[in-house]
Hints:
Elements lengths: L20 H14 L1 H17 L4 H30 L17 H24 L4 H34 L4 E5 L11 E3 L18 E2 L1
Amino acid sequence: KTSEKVKESLNLSExxxxxxxxxxxxxxxxxxADYKKICKIYQHLRNDTVxxxxxSTKNMTKYTALIQDELKKYIADYAxxxxxxxxxxxxKAVNSDGTEFISEEINKLADKTVERFIDDMSVKIKSxxxxxxxxxxxxxxxxxxACNFLSQKAYWYGFVKGCAVRGAKRLTIKLSDDHKKEHKxxxxxxxxxxxxxxxxxxxxxxxxx
Length: 209
């Protein structure tokens, strides 16, 4: 079954777990440490756009592709780590590039999310309500949310796939209070999609046990 979320990019305008100042500062530091390459690409885009005075179509295309490619590398790493966690030995897949534990739905969602992010950045810059530099400062949280959400989604996808390999049929999700009403706490490893697994929002604390 194809997830409905693949049809639209992530709506990352809000995140309940990112409203506390101390948590936000901690989340930012972790993002900068864990996603150094994406942060570097974003900084290059910011500097280039400030220098030129606009976000050109050429740069939109160029940097969209750069961020998408890098984000999907992180997604692959997290998926493989999720698989390794599911194995009692803690070992990664033998003779595997990990692709069987990566959801194409998550990759498609990543592509659409980055496209929308860059498009929205362009609109905000053209509106001239903020300086270009301020636009980049303001919009950065959305890229941070996307990295967290998509990487963790890939991790738990790999985990569930790995559990299926070792014969587990049903898994339990430890749901946070924010998600108990809207999500089921049981996953069937032979019939699930990315909407059924955590995270259900950026910085979601739900986990699979």
